[in-house]
Records
---
Amino acid sequence: MERFRSVRIASIFGILGNLFLLIIKSIIGFITNSQAMIADAFNSAGDIISSVMTFIGNRIASIPSDEDHNLGHGKAEYIYSMLISIAMILMGLIVFKDSFYSIFSNNKFEFSFWLVVVCAVTIFVKLLLYIYTSKLSKKYNNLLIKANSKDHRNDCIITSCNLISCLLSLNGIKYFDGIVGSLIAIWMVATSILIFKESYNVLMDKSISEETKKKVYEIVKSHSEIKKIIHFNSTPVGYRYQISLTIFVDGNLSTFESHKIADDLEKEITKKLDEIYLTIIHVNPIEVDE
């Protein structure tokens, strides 16, 4: 399937790009003792973990339904997104502790031209990855890629702050390096919590959005032969939803006629709304005045 193939390629690009950035950030960060650059290197390590989990989660989610998993394996995307967020939260807390301590300790940070070069390279690479994954995220509505896209965007902003701290050190303002490192860590934790929350909501079978629910009702109400709607339910199936509802039609209709109305409506809803994976409609008779 094109959706899963595209996500797989994006995750491989993410792994290779972040591995390259991790190596150069770690070397320059430890040579210059820059807490901001070391924090950025940890962030890249987290990005590699994210990309690996994206690859694995996407691989599992692409497996079609079987006897043991009647609705497929789509929720693997959200399980691995949650694992990514937990790993990033833990990493962010470690980076924050080290960076915050460096603000009040004797920071031995030394400016180097290579810090500027690494920041510039990072911003360029991350900007390319962000543009690429952002397009995929919008096209396929994939939470794993959405999480990666946000992370690439955040990295551009974070590394820009890192670059500012490097330039300020030229004027002897070295404490800002520790401040930037702390801010990077806080950003890592904050964005990870948002991803965790979104994954949790799907895994806990959060209902379909009110906007999509409204669209379903509009389609149903466009059919004058349907007199009443009750029992609207939705269940997430991977990145899409399975919905069910009960409609009431004229009790004088034959069984064939009433069920044809339901069958046609099921097909119409599923065809018109990309968010809907499967529509199940139950039909009840209702007394209609002549």
Note: Residues 168 and 174 are 7 Å apart (CA to CA).
---
Amino acid sequence: MHTPTVEAAAALEPLLPQRYRVTRRCQELADTFSLELAPVDSPLACCGPGQFNMLYVYGVGEVPISLSGHSQDGVGLIHTVRVVGPVTQAMSGLEAGDMVGVRGPFGAPWPLAEAEGRDLVFAAGGLGLAPLRLAIEHVLDNRGRFGSVCVAFGARSPELILFRNILERWRARFDVSVDVTVDCAGADWAGKVGVVTRLLERDDYEPVETCALICGPEVMMRYSAKTLLDRGVPAAQIFLSMERSMKCAVGYCGHCQFGPGFVCKDGPVYSHADIGRLLELSEF
């Protein structure tokens, strides 16, 4: 009898994790770190900007984590993780050489092909910058295909600014606008103070021709979308990444039901035209 390889089985069974080895660990913030992972067997299918993988810590459990980057060889995966529970706590103790299981990719990516030719606004709050990072870098690597590009990022305080070096590198370019604000800061902070929605009131993008990509806490996304809608950006051109409680990633368990669908299958990236009504429902 023919026995399928691990790689073939994984291609047929989305619940079977593939083995990946930690090649590098980077502490981003006090409670946030990035893991670079290299495949031990055959690599999984390419994970697009906005999609997510399920990362499994053997003997502990698994969690959904959006892709935040690729290794230099283009094969390895980079995931940025905040410690919020037992699985991510165990994951924070992993070092180079340790093994994890990876399933994926899952979910809908950011609509970058559809956004070509338009002005682009990226709005990120806190860890929401991680799922947007690959999309921003794709746009900057293909700069001639897009109109003006604005990146608006908000953090609770200066010490919680994620990817500070990357933001500075983007800001150093002459073909993209990068604005950062914090909710509160001490006297030694010379930057902007206020909510990220204030950064979206700028007038250097053409609303009707703009595509907006938003990721962050739901309240931040709701008010960011409202600001853009008030500016005249069409609801069908505003996209949000919903990070609700995903467990199985294939629509079996029902943990991430959102209206008539499931975030893991129908999202995590949605058009505001499709979910705007749900976002306005209290305690939904």
Note: DSSP finds eight helices and 15 strands in the chain.
---
Amino acid sequence: MPRGPRFVFPNAFYHVFNRGINKQPIFLAKADYQFFLKKLLDLKKKYDHSIYAFCLMPNHFHISMQTRKITISKIIASLATSYSMYFNRTYSHFGPVFQNRFKSILIENDSYFLKLSQYIYLNPVKAKLVADPLAYEFSSIREALGKEPLHFLDEDIIRLIGQTKSSQEEYAQFIYGGVEEDLIEIEKLFEKEEVVLGSERFATLTQKKYLRRHLKNNA
């Protein structure tokens, strides 16, 4: 059965996730992470979208972003294709690197982003790669908390988190507050290819927009 179009709207706010095929590692060396991040930054400049959080794990990645004119599918397809070509060339690998189509969560507003960002930044801790999320090298948490200048993240992250020391400390406390929490409900969101995270009204409006677009494309 052919897949339908994604929920695609101007200025949409997404959380994107994908993993290696058969859950195999996609980052085998530090240079792999660096290549992926360089491509991520290049595409941000090329396609004019915002990045608000990311974390690269050994066998998957999470990115929160807001699109403008270029669709999420085109952005992520460019990223995945470029990295797959690099991976296959580097490791004499043949065939797909990533598992199926990427998964995406359409986010309603800032509060939903904040909860997802907590999950993103705690991924390395939950996986027991580090004890402190700030110690993990391949996420944007240090930029988000003002420990490093903004490089990958959009300046609008200041609106979401705040730029004062106290607001950043509150956000850090929120992140660390999830260490002992069971985040299974967030994990369930990644079982489906596409999810809407927000109020019932937002979900209803999204479905209506989706149906109109689907009917127009098939007219």
Note: Residues 201 and 207 are 10 Å apart (CA to CA).
